[in-house]
Design brief:
By secondary structure, the protein is mostly helical. It has helices at 2-17, 28-36, 91-113, 117-130, 134-145, 165-171, 177-180, 183-200, 205-214, 216-224, 233-238, and strands at residues 39-40, 51-52, 74-75, 84-85. The strands form 2 sheets. A two-stranded antiparallel sheet has the order 1-2.
Length: 248
């Protein structure tokens, strides 16, 4: 009996200490919450309606968010071959990106033509330096020498691009026969010669290749007589090729 009286008294005191909840005009809660950095749940029939605190202050509509989505970190420019970083351009990162792209292409040519990466690198770099599209350079070397740096024809043409010594000395007067049997020298002069022929024939790649193979005298004589100078060589080099031959 005594326990029941004590419990009833405690309940009565608790009820008397509860203050009635003040009525809040519509919208007042939202404004107050925004002022002190809280979020307010949408009013309605939801049982969760009412002010609810948050750990971070609410940003205004004009404030810029300090956070970026992962997709915003990379921005791809029109015509760009790779992504550019939104947080600035670091020359070291750019150089590394270009180096990776270069080696990716070199290994691709190495696999395509089944040659060692070192030889593929020499052909690729020589073509780029001379302003020749690398694909054309690889095709020319394959037809001329089958990628044999020591190749020599019965007519005396030497090396990867099968240069005649007299033709090579037109570009580098003091070049020797031994030098023409080295990859770098042979490629440098051979691609320079091919580039000059393409320019001389106003971008006519087939005609330039025929001059490269038959010589300017034989091709000029055939054209002067109204004959077709084609002998099938140009088709072996550019069959399936869609490029212009030279770089922009």
């Amino acid at each position: 009996m005594r326990l029941m009286v004590v419990t009833s008294a405690a309940v009565l005191v608790g009820v008397m200490m509860v203050k009635p909840r003040a009525e809040v005009p519509p919208g007042a809660g939202t404004a107050a919450a925004a002022a002190r950095g809280t979020t307010v749940a949408a009013t309605g029939n939801s049982p969760l309606a009412g002010p609810r605190t948050t750990l971070f202050p609410t940003l205004s509509a004009n404030a810029a968010s300090p956070w970026k989505r992962p997709g915003d970190l990379l921005k791809r420019d029109e015509g760009a071959k790779g992504p550019s970083f939104a947080f600035g351009t670091d020359p070291r990162l750019t150089e590394r990106h270009e180096s990776l792209n270069r080696w990716h292409r070199i290994y691709g040519y190495s696999a395509k033509y089944r040659i060692k990466p070192d030889l593929a690198r020499r052909i690729y770099d020589a073509a780029i330096t001379a302003g020749i599209e690398p694909e054309l350079g690889f095709r020319l070397v394959r037809v001329e020498s089958v990628f044999d740096t020591k190749a020599e024809s019965p007519a005396g043409a030497l090396g990867l691009t099968q240069l005649m010594p007299s033709t090579a000395r037109f570009f580098e007067p003091h070049v020797t026969r031994e030098q023409l049997l080295t990859a770098d020298v042979n490629l440098r002069i051979g691609f320079k010669y091919l580039r000059a022929l393409i320019r001389e024939n106003k971008g006519d790649l087939k005609l330039a290749l025929l001059v490269y193979n038959r010589g300017p005298v034989a091709v000029g004589r055939a054209l002067a007589m109204g004959q077709d100078p084609a002998n099938g060589y140009e088709s072996l080099v550019i069959k399936g090729y869609r490029g212009r031959g030279i770089l922009q």
